[in-house]
User: Which sequence fits this backbone?
């Protein structure tokens, strides 16, 4: 989902994996499903490098590989190599290139088949009395669960009380800093939480899962088991039931948590089998993880519903209370119709959002990703006036800048004052000066020098 | 306002309404219909033909309308007609102050540059061995903007630098045409936005010269019709048109792209009629990669690794098409030639399938793209007479395979080769 | 940049050529079965790169062409393949469907006395039509408002074992031009890249041109045991990525064409100035546009022609047809010899094996 910038890997999870030990990662790479999933999370160039090396039996000199890289993309290539080596897929800065042998075996097994790790999930035998749930059931379930969480967050400050997600989810939200309890009272959404709401669903899902992974250690769970279970889920087939029998104890314990997030589905009467939902199976792809608003059959929702005009008016074709609530964060809503919400972006509404910790860029990116297909014909997509104005409103907030420093005052004579000021100016530490009042303001860093200078001077006079 | 027609006067008259008078409109504007203003474009009176389907939705009808308009283009002459393929064209651009008018968005000038670029691209696609030169009219003189060239990139580069072409002053048709026709030029295409021309002599003399030299002049006017423009076109056998709006401007310009049928030849298709027709000896080279050991090129005597090898004497030349510096053979890249063959061997048109013949066991999917056909005829209720299949099926008469509407258009517009029979 | 990519494969399934390719006497013996196992691994890798990557395989068979597999087609849920904990199920389904359809088509061929020419043009044009359908946000199918950014990047991989069919010259060239043009209707210009993987047989003039004109790569596989590595290195990267990590391309591109009269592949030809038809010998009347040529030209051309009898096909390799004119530039000699080794060792090894 994320575009790879110069210093971050292409996915949130990869940054997390970077911090893991080599032994943990090597254990992870023993499972073909994990290899496949991690491979998919890599950027395009990294994937190609892995594929070029995957089928070689021997090591090749790094220079041979580098010969295929044109001069002007050398930097991107080096960057990719460093990402791979931080994942312990490649030896760090060696003259020879060879893939981690565990990963090589695992990924080869994933691609051509073979092996006996059972890492793609053991399907449950079909049960006549309980046919597996339909894809629609799963989608509706996942959506309901996910929106419950988001809706709880968005309406926490408004005094309304929507259905509460389970206790485990609340703990997760609190630990991740998305919500916080004020003075021991009810949970309130934080500015991080507001930002979270504007993220695309994929990023939201991964943010929560990452927090879950960070909590794993203190819950005495095995991180590798947890990760490999997530990867297993991502390679499972939607609408198929899997057996819990072959899962480890850690993984069985995870089932309940994941059920709360809407990532898997379980029948109450048959706890021995489970179904991944679309949230799970799209973990490593970029197709929409949520099957759009409940009941709406068309795919237009997935492509966006917001029309923004140059006069700051905004029309949102939605009947989804969650989407309306999110819009309410930065739009002043005027009227609601069965499938349409009309509002306007005003200075007050944007300032409210900014006060909540949402940035102008987040508002603009939310509007961009959820723009109605009709808007896509415009170039640029959003009216420039509106974009600029939102940014200007943000700048208004930043009119004052604070800086620590020292005020030098009460100079004995004008000559004294000018002499010290001249010295301070040479150092480049003067922030403000006022000649009539014989005082100036210098930065914190410059203070020792100036003090020393004045002391030397007074000492010299004495 | 209508009086303008008879006197190419200096009076500046603005507005587009007058150009649309039926009397004035030209034969080359079939697509424009009766649309005097841009905001009246798109489907004229489309509500008359729209009918709801059983679900009360208009989608099928809209789809039908689109399919019909796309298909209309396809119904044309099926037989191969003889065309000129080696063409020489000079494109004259109006760079006078009148091009800064904003009646076409963003301005006439920007629109003209954009369309000119598209025109050049498309023109070279369809006229592979042709050459284009560019001349601008600005400040009362003709300016040579792009030398005549067979390389699309050179031509495009000439008109890519907008700031060098800033419009100014008055245009001069006579100066520009005189500049364009120096040398051996067959065709002149003028994009003309002004209502005046500021000429040093009698433009009718220039016109007579053009007629004598068999130069065909076509004009696309952006403002209004001027008698001299029309006369230039009529007397030289070119096309004249006044653009009503942005889309129509493009249509008019792009109508000039296909090689014009050689009328003179068609008339005299008797024995040995064409003195220009000849058999030429050409060679198809081998291209050397940049990694090959460098050799001296025969044309400049420079050491180069990239280049082409003459098939007869194996000398190395830098670029094609050219004449071999050693043996004199004309070396061309065969794909250049092949680009024009779809004119000679067009794909056979498909005919619309009106009703399914149960006996023949029709295929369920398009033979080309494997898209499933719709099960039953669309209920749009429009008469299916215009070569539109109610089933969305179009059948090749040679191989009797069915194709969908998208593939029908694609095969005849772009591919020029039937996927079923390979012809 | 990380867009999904669409891969259309044109698979040459000529039984005769594959039989020849599998003979131990052939320069680089490889059987169809071995090849397919490599190909399937490659296809799995393509899908593994990105979940949204799509795939279509077109088979060129004697006298016909057929869509063998399309990732867009719904999987008929006959549950023929039992789910298995050790393989990624989409791979398994895809592989089994491809293998089944290939087996079905080859079995259906029977054993005719003479093999019809393979439907290569049909397969290539179908691949283009298919790409046209999946990449242009088509108005007729009702998928309105598809964001062009989500449409896949298309490319074609031709896997060829057969020699050029000179009769299909115009069709192949037309296909190349439409690949160049395709998707240029869109706002952003992109073309369909055509990659060529030549497993067996002589260098293909037309396919070399196809790869060159569309910016693809032409690879003549001379080590079949390393076929998978060839496929991964050269053909896995989508066109956008090839700017970052280059792929092997061909050395020389042969711009020869096929004449209209005898369907010979020629390097020096007679061209009608009116319609640009190509003839391998001087003709009095153009067969395409019925233009009559001046008699003087005919005499001149006939006189200046190299000493081949009219109508005989020109030797296909340029090396043989080089009349040694007196003024050959010095650098041309090593060049012309460098052309020969391409064809000679192969013949020599053939001869050697038959002698033994």
Assistant:
């Amino acid at each position: 989902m994320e575009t790879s910038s110069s210093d971050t890997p292409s996915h949130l999870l990869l940054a997390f994996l970077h911090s893991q030990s080599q032994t943990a990662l090597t254990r992870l790479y023993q499972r073909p499903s994990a290899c496949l999933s991690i491979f998919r999370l890599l950027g395009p160039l990294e994937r190609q490098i892995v594929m070029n090396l995957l089928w070689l039996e021997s090591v090749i000199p790094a220079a041979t590989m580098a010969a295929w890289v044109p001069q002007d993309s050398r930097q991107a290539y080096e960057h990719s190599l460093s990402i791979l080596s931080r994942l312990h897929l490649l030896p760090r800065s060696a003259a020879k290139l060879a893939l981690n042998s565990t990963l090589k075996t695992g990924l080869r097994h994933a691609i051509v088949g073979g092996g006996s790790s059972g890492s793609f999930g053991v399907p449950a035998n079909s049960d006549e009395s309980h046919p597996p749930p339909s894809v629609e059931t799963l989608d509706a379930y996942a959506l309901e669960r996910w929106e419950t969480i988001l809706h709880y967050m968005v309406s926490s400050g408004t005094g309304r009380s929507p259905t509460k997600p389970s206790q485990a989810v609340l703990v997760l939200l609190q630990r991740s800093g998305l919500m916080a309890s004020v003075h021991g009272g009810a949970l309130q959404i934080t500015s991080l939480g507001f930002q979270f709401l504007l993220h695309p669903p994929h990023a939201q899902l991964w943010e929560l899962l990452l927090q879950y992974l960070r909590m794993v250690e203190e819950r005495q769970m095995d991180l590798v088991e947890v990760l490999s279970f997530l990867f297993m889920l991502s390679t499972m087939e939607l609408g198929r039931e899997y057996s819990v029998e072959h899962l480890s104890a850690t993984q069985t314990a995870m089932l309940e948590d994941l059920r709360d997030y809407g990532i898997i589905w379980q029948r109450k009467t048959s706890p021995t089998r489970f179904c991944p939902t679309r949230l799970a199976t799209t973990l490593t792809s970029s197709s929409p993880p949520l099957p759009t608003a409940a009941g709406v059959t068309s795919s237009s929702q997935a492509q966006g519903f917001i029309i923004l005009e140059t006069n700051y008016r905004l029309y949102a074709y939605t009947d989804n209370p969650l989407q309306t609530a999110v819009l309410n964060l930065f739009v002043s809503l005027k009227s609601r119709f069965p499938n349409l919400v009309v509002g306007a972006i005003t200075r007050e509404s944007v300032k409210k959002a900014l006060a909540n910790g949402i940035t102008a860029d987040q508002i603009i990116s939310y509007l961009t990703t959820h723009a109605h297909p009709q808007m896509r014909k415009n170039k640029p997509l959003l009216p420039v006036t509106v974009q600029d104005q939102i940014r200007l409103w943000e700048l208004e907030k930043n009119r004052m800048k604070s800086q620590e420093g020292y005020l030098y005052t009460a100079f004995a004579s004008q000559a004294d004052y000018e002499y010290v000021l001249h010295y301070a100016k040479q150092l480049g530490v003067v922030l403000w000066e006022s000649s009539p009042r014989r005082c100036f303001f210098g930065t914190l860093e410059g203070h020792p020098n100036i003090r020393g200078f004045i002391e030397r001077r007074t000492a010299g006079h004495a | 306002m209508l009086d303008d027609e008879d006197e190419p006067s200096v009076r500046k008259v603005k507005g587009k309404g007058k150009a649309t008078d039926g009397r004035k409109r030209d034969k080359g504007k079939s697509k424009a219909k009766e649309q005097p203003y841009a905001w009246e474009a798109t489907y004229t009176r489309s509500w008359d033909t729209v009918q709801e389907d059983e679900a009360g939705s208009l989608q099928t009808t809209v789809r039908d309308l689109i399919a019909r308009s796309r298909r209309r283009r396809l119904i044309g002459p099926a037989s191969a007609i003889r065309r000129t393929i080696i063409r020489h064209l000079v494109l004259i651009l109006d760079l006078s102050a009148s091009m800064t008018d904003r009646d076409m968005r963003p301005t006439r000038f920007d629109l003209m540059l954009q369309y000119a670029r598209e025109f050049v691209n498309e023109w070279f696609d369809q006229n592979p061995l042709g050459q284009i030169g560019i001349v601008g009219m600005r400040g009362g003189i003709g300016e040579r903007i792009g030398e005549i060239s067979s390389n699309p990139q050179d031509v495009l580069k000439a008109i890519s630098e907008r700031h060098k072409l800033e419009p100014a002053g008055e245009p001069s048709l006579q100066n520009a045409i005189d500049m364009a026709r120096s040398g051996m030029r067959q065709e002149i295409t003028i994009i003309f936005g002004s209502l005046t021309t500021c000429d040093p002599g009698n433009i009718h003399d220039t016109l007579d010269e053009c007629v004598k030299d068999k130069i065909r002049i076509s004009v696309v006017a952006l403002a209004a019709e001027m008698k001299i423009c029309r006369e230039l076109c009529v007397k030289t056998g070119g096309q004249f048109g006044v653009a009503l709006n942005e889309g129509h401007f493009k249509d008019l310009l792009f109508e000039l792209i296909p090689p014009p049928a050689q009328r003179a030849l068609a008339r005299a298709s008797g024995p040995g009629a064409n003195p220009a027709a000849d058999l030429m000896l050409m060679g198809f080279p081998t291209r050397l990669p940049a990694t090959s050991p460098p050799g001296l090129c025969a044309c400049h005597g420079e050491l180069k690794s990239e280049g082409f090898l003459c098939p007869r004497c194996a000398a190395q030349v830098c670029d094609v098409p050219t004449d071999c510096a050693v043996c004199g053979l004309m070396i061309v890249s065969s794909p250049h030639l092949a680009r024009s063959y779809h004119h000679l061997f067009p794909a056979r048109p498909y005919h619309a399938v009106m009703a399914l013949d149960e006996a023949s066991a029709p295929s369920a999917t398009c033979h080309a793209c494997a898209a499933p056909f719709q099960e039953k005829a669309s209920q749009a209720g429009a008469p299916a007479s215009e070569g539109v299949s109610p089933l969305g099926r179009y059948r090749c008469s040679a191989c009797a395979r069915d194709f969908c509407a998208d593939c029908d258009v694609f095969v005849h517009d772009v591919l020029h080769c039937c996927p079923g029979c390979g012809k | 940049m990380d867009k999904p990519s669409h891969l259309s494969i044109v698979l040459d399934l000529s039984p005769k050529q594959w039989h020849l390719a599998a003979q131990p006497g052939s320069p680089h013996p490889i059987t169809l079965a071995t090849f397919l196992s490599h190909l399937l691994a490659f296809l799995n890798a393509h899908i593994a790169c990105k979940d949204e990557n799509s795939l279509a395989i077109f088979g060129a068979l004697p006298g016909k062409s057929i869509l063998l597999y399309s990732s867009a087609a719904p999987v008929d849920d006959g549950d023929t393949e039992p789910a298995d904990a050790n393989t990624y199920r989409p791979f398994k389904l895809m592989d089994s469907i491809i293998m089944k359809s290939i087996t079905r088509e080859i079995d259906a061929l029977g054993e005719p006395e003479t093999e019809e020419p393979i439907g290569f043009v049909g397969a290539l044009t179908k691949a283009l039509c298919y790409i046209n359908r999946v990449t242009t946000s088509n108005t007729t199918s009702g998928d309105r408002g598809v964001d062009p950014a989500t449409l896949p990047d298309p490319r074609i991989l031709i896997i060829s074992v057969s020699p050029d069919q000179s009769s299909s010259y115009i069709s192949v060239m037309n296909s190349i031009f439409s690949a160049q043009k395709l998707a240029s209707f869109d706002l952003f210009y992109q073309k369909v890249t055509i990659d060529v993987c030549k497993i067996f047989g002589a260098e293909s003039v037309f396919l070399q041109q196809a790869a060159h004109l569309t910016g693809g790569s032409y690879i003549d596989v001379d080590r079949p045991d390393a076929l998978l590595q060839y496929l991964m290195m050269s053909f896995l990267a989508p066109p956008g990525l090839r700017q970052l990590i280059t792929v092997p391309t061909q050395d020389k591109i042969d711009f020869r064409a096929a004449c209209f009269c005898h369907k010979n592949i020629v390097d020096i030809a007679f061209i009608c100035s009116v319609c640009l038809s190509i003839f391998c010998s001087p003709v009095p009347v153009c067969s395409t546009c019925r233009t009559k040529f001046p008699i003087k030209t005919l005499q001149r051309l006939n006189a200046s022609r190299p000493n081949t009898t009219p109508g005989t096909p020109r030797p296909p390799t340029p090396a043989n047809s080089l009349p040694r004119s007196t003024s050959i530039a010095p650098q041309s000699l090593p060049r012309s010899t460098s052309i020969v080794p391409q064809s000679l060792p192969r013949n020599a090894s053939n001869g050697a094996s038959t002698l033994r």
Remarks:
- Confidence is low (pLDDT under 50) at residues 138-147, 184-189, 307-356 of chain C.
